[in-house]
Amino acid sequence: MNKLSENIINNINKIMEVNFGSDLAAGNPRQVYEALITATNMALKEKRSAFTKKVKEQEAKQVYYMSMEFLVGTSLKNNLWNLGVEDDVAAHLKTAGYDIEDFYEMEPDAGLGNGGLGRLASCYMDSLTTLGYPVTGFSIRYEFGIFKQVIIDGWQNEFPDSWIDKAGYWLNPRLDEEVEVRFFGNVNENWTENGLTTEHTGYVSVLATPYDLFISGYDTEAVNSLRLWSAKATSGFNMDLFSKGEYVKSTENEAIASSISKVLYPADNTYEGKSLRLKQQYFFVSASLQQITKKHFKRYGTFDNFAEKNVIHINDTHPSLCVPELMRILMDDYNYKWDKAWEITAESLAYTNHTVMSEALEKWPVDLVKSHLPRIYTIIEEINRRFCSYIYEHHAHLGGGINNMAIIEGGMVKMANLCIAGSYSVNGVSKLHSEILKADTFRDFNCVYPDKFTNVTNGITHRRWLCQANPLLSELLTEKIGDGFKKSLENIEKFNDFIDDEEVLASLREIKKANKKRLAEYVAKKNGIELNCDSLFDIQVKRLHEYKRQLLNAMHIVDLYLRIKYDGHRPLPKTFIFAAKASAGYFMAKEIIRLICALSEMIERDPDVRDYMKVVFIADYKVSLAEIIIPAADISEQISQAGKEASGTGNMKLMINGAVTLGTMDGANVEIYECVGEDNIFIFGMSTPEVSELARHYNPRSYYEGNARIKRVVDFIKDGIPGKNFDSIYNYLINSDPYMNLADFESYCAAHERVNEAYADSDRFTKMSLKNIANAGMFASDRSVTDYAEGIWHTKPIK
Ligand code: 26W
Fold first, then answer.
1. Tens digits of residue pLDDT in 21-74
2. Which residues line ligand 1 (CB under 6 A)?
3. Burial 566-589 (b: 16+ CB within 10 A, else e)
4. Does the model's pTM come out above 0.85?
5. Considering only Cβ atoms within 10 Å of each terminal Cβ, which end of the chain, N or C, has fewer?
């Protein structure tokens, strides 16, 4: 047994004794759970302190990853596995009669994110740590993470998720590093012998308390931390009011302040100009930058080398206030003049864009920013003034483009423009997406700053998504190609050599079957539906959004149903699995869920059809559920309208687990296509340029009227399901269909036919599956973060 295992095991025993006055065997599961996490957390803490010492000694450049979201999921298994102690700890628990799996199940997900962007941030923390880069993630310690989804009669209902009760053991408070964040008030400008100085008065203070969540890497000395800020009032409650008997009023300040870190905004890809959201953004940006600058100044006594020693990464525009806040700190707290402060700021910030959807591009009303953050607003105004005059002077030929680039325009502050002006690097998250940013979304900026724009294709941590989620496949790979792939996924390429190995192909089929059974058990328990594990599992799991086109999938299901029911079609059995959360106020998304659930129910009740197809909507999609669903997939549905999905990362998780992509040429699907070749993927639908062309005169009604197959499907959706009515979706499809489901429908159905043909030949399909696994190397987040480190951050791992 290694030292670390010994240490953790001793600590488990000790905590049982000291906290609960019990030995391990006599404890109750909740006590053992607490002891297990606390002991693991202690081990991480010790390891971290050794790592931090090295970072200091080497005066390494620091990476700060600023993100409103980190979709951490569960941590216990990941930490034990990464630390290489899982087997020892499990064996120890077993001696006292416990199964470690039961403790894994007790742990709630830390759901501090919505979808792709948040999960990406967590994958990057894992990879950066594994590779030994010093990095700190900054976000908010939301008391309530992403809501729990409960489906009642097909309709999504949201319930609060208070994850901290059971996962809070991972959070390490640092009361010694609290900082104050200021809102509202007035700004007075005064001319003094030092030039123009400003004074922020009459502000409201909120206290930011940091909680550190330690991130272990795999087979590495590094332990990094995710710092989550929690808000509270500077003075707890009003004693005067309390003494006068105004008990509720006396706690009002505290309630207002703590509301900032109360709940994650459950919006994905739609922006709302809400005061609380702006406060959240400034709160965590200001607290983080105050800490970063303080630490830097304490060590170096100057900011002249700030950009050389630090890089601050802005994960989408949500932390865009980094630009004016860093300016503020440099000028107001450390007396830098504008030009020097701007030089330091613009050389230490880098920005990633994650979406081209116009409704997701953040813009804040000027009045809101001015009232909430008066000092910050004056800085943004000045940045804008200087930026616009620079453009007028040097790029006057851009004409109307200047309006597109202005930071303040039409009474709004445009956050993406602020990020581009204030960062030295701007990147998209897949080849196609980065091209669209340059050619379209940020076209004018690209004319002015062509060198700023670059691409880093997203990736996933295969340690969680393959090794931990799919231990059977991981074992097979280890047996055949060694375990080098765990640290360096390029090595998985060697698996290609087994393409004609009958034994390996048979093992792949067995593993898929076992993973289907694991999922089927879950579905039987939660949905009361029995799955046929010999059927093809066709899976679409992701946030629910019109552009992701779960509706197109549902349309094909209706078509298939009608053909089985009325046309004598007798296909190979298929199981269509969905899981998706919709934003709470997103009506059409909720209607699509209701449609899928209605189809599920109708088919389940229909003896003519149910042996050929099944539809399941699994509620409450989250990281820990994805870990069960993804390894069971044969087909990975990635069917967004071309040009709309920035990258997708579920596509990569499914691929590495042996699912074959059925998708459009969108986001990272394009790169998956390049990696596996056209024979190992099912591509359909319009390309991005075809979409742009058709969008100019698209008329869905002409497809509906001109195509009997489409008409049959759309009419059935309207009121064909007994007892259900979907006028909403019917009208949507024939009158607007903004993501052109109807235009891609025929091509999508044809692609399904190709899937069927391939799946019927199980040797051929298993080979396709193998090719997907073996060629997933480039989608490791280890590769992505290396691209960031080398191409953008210019940092090196700790020696
Ligand atoms: C302000 C509301 C809001 C919230 C979240 C707007 C936009 C977002 C995110 C940018 C949405 C998101 O998660 N985008 C996804 O990012 C992934 C990681 O890069 C990509 O793989 C997905 O394609 C992209 O949709």
1. 999 999 999 999 999 999 999 999 999 999 999 999 999 999 999 999 999 999
2. 114-117, 120, 267-271, 316, 354-355, 360, 362, 429, 458, 645-649, 667
3. eeeeeeeebbbbbbbbbbeebeeb
4. yes
5. C
